[in-house]
Design a protein that fits this description.
- This protein has 356 residues and is mainly alpha-helical.
- The protein is 57% helix and 0% strand.
- It contains 15 helices and no strands.
- 47% of the residues are buried.
Length: 356
């Protein structure tokens, strides 16, 4: 159990919390190759071994790609920053990405050009009639299951908005202005305490979880890491810019009921009010951002580049597919009374939470 670093809204992470992610343990031949390569000085390197699992959701393949992408975020502890643009390593990463994309294309068909991209996105993000992971959490999840979900989501929420921001210099006109508006909200309108990454760290701390960046990498399965690898891949490749726009638009347009459900789950289980603040902020902000994303960001890009519409929808569909893989994994584990993580969390025995 970790002592909460943040105790109430307004607290901010200490400077040392913004360091690089710790290196995890290897899970197979691909992560063994990554860790062995990055453990030495930058230079020539071999190509990665063939995948022994699913190139998108496999525990080994997903972690290997995640670690290589992490070089473009905050880096990795003990790893020379000059590996980031080392040509042979980029070539090696491309081998992982080609397998990633091939698997993704098999799972997610390329949509036909829509007559109205904003309307097509709205149809895709209508609330589902059947139960979802979020609705299960709202009504039934135990305290430990909700803590598991927050650990899973730490891989994304502690870098929330960052890969989408890579699209800013690649856009112009009203689509650029729309993205700038959305991202400004994600970064707290310039106020440190309100940066969404900081608000999520507050949630983790109040649930007696570790709020340090990357601290749970050893526990996160491939289906979790795949949801982050997808947006990192879109963000790092200019040719996939429309897919990035579709990913962000769909994310914003489907956020409100999901965030509302997680906030309700925390209240049901008696969590401190400040633990829900991250989710409550999204309910309010994304009620507006969903329209900006559809009508200005996505529609604005199609206005400039009409051929981008199918790839925008592909980005939305790819998000939906990776999220469905994640939800199926988590609910499948819980139905059989197993942890959805690769290892168990330390039991939360604090008096405050035992009384909830």
């Amino acid at each position: 159990m970790t002592e909460p670093e943040l105790r109430d809204y307004g607290d901010v992470l200490p400077p040392e919390a913004y360091g690089p992610a710790p290196l995890p343990q290897a899970r197979g031949p691909r992560t063994e190759w990554v860790l062995t390569t990055l453990n030495r000085q930058p230079g020539r390197c071999s190509l990665p071994p063939a995948a022994t699992d699913d190139p998108v959701t496999g525990d080994d393949s997903a972690l290997a790609l995640y670690l290589l992408y992490e070089l473009h975020y905050r880096g990795l502890q003990g790893v020379d920053d000059n590996w980031e643009w080392q040509p042979e390593l980029l070539t090696a990463r491309q081998h992982l990405e080609l397998a990633f994309v091939e698997r993704l294309r098999d799972a997610v068909p390329m949509p036909s050009p829509p007559s109205d991209v904003a309307e097509a996105l709205r149809r895709r993000t209508e609330p589902a009639d059947e139960p979802t992971l979020a609705s299960y959490c709202e009504a039934e999840a135990s305290w430990e299951q909700l803590r598991e979900i927050c650990v899973h989501r730490s891989a994304w929420q502690l870098k929330e908005a960052d890969p989408h921001t890579w699209a800013l210099p690649r856009l112009g006109g009203r689509s650029k202005a729309a993205l700038a508006e959305i991202q400004s909200g994600e970064y707290g309108e310039g106020v440190e305490r309100d940066v969404h990454q900081n608000l999520y760290a507050l949630t983790l701390s109040l649930l007696n979880l570790d709020s340090r960046y990357g601290s749970y990498l050893n526990l996160l399965p491939g289906v979790t890491l795949a949801t982050v690898n997808l947006v990192s891949f879109f963000g790092l490749h200019r040719s996939w810019l429309p897919a990035m726009v579709g990913h962000l638009a769909s994310f914003e347009m489907s956020s409100v009921p999901v965030m509302s459900a997680y906030s309700a789950a925390l209240r049901r289980l008696g969590a401190p009010q400040a633990a829900s603040h991250f989710f409550d902020v999204h309910v309010v902000a994304d009620a507006h951002h969903q329209n900006v994303a559809a009508d200005q960001l996505a529609a604005g890009l199609v206005e400039q580049q009409p051929s981008s519409a199918p790839l925008i929808l592909f980005g939305a569909d790819a998000l939906a597919w990776t999220e469905s893989q994640f939800a199926d994994h988590v609910l499948g584990a819980w139905r059989t009374h197993r942890s959805s993580l690769l290892g168990g969390l330390a039991a939360d025995t604090s008096e405050r939470l035992l009384s909830s």
